[in-house]
Amino acid sequence: MAKRSTPGLNTSSMADISFLLLTFFLMTSSINTDMGISRKLPPPKDENKKEEVDIHKRNIFVVKINSHDALLFDGEIGDIRDLKTRAKDFLGNPNDLENLPEKIEMDIPLLGSYRVSKGVISLQNDRGTSYDMYIQVQNELTAAVNEMRDELCRIKFGKSYNDAEKEQKEAIDKAIPVAISEAEPTKIGGNN
Description:
The chain is α/β, with parallel strands linked by helices. It has a domain of 126 residues. The protein has four helices and seven strands. The strands form two sheets. A five-stranded mixed sheet has the order 3-2-1-6-7, covered by helices on one side. A two-stranded antiparallel ribbon has the order 4-5. Strand 1 and strand 2 form a beta hairpin. The radius of gyration is 27 Å and the shape is elongated.
């Protein structure tokens, strides 16, 4: 008795269909690329050049987050809901108070002579700080700078920062720079 052969399936068109489906899903799905925190990193440090930075105490706004996610603003226990307002008051120093940052007069294209704050926000967190709290603090600090830029843009150019031209945004960025310094995570004591 002769062996019967099993009919085979022609799967060559299945590979084409799979490739077309894969291409369709890749082209129609969206990948969110706007994740993360936008920061401009400083240029690489020249090992041969010693650089000393002299920052007066009045120009530094210290924000600490401990391992229990408690906040401390300039030595006082604070709430995340107050951080943006405190950061804006510090960086803006609208009343030129002696305990808030100094301002230097700069000539900025499109703005003319403008008093730029020398304020720096120093963010320090504990190794045990939760990622959620760290991101919340970063969001509040970024929102403070963004609101200040938007307010100045509306005053000077009559439009929001997002609607401004490239040259106008560059002028606003020079007038209100992002001055956030992050220290390496350490063990921040007790209940601060």
